[in-house]
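User: Here's a chain of 153 residues. Predict its fold as tokens.
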Amino acid sequence: MKRRDVRGYVLLEALVALLIFSLGLLGMIGFQAASTRIVTDSRFRTEAAILADELIAKMSVDKRSVVIANYAYDSEGGGGGASTRTWFETRVTGASKLPNPKVKVDVASGASVDTFTVTVRIQWDLPSSGTSDKAVKQKEMEHGNYETQALLF
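Assistant: Prediction complete.
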């Protein structure tokens, strides 16, 4: 057996090991990025749930005769109830961390007197991790949504 036949195998093994290690490291970075996205979305959903619960709690203690007038609201349409508009401006856009939030509150009369079905929809933008071109980034915005319904009686 000649020594020339075994030359370079150690170097080749080291390069293959480095390649495997690099692929594993890239996989871990991908998992970390996905984990960060999931945690951010979870934080926004939790905040939206707390805000919606807060508004429904306000509605449940208010007079039933003014619920539809004071709480039906659409932040994109600009019209709606004064109580929800105040809540939207102070709590949702002012104090929350939701990026570019939009709220729509539908209040419908129920089957019996003084019952209402309330639907609260909160939407926010989730920026994607795409290219740095501003126009392309704006097109790639994803929306986070939270919707809940309650029966007030």
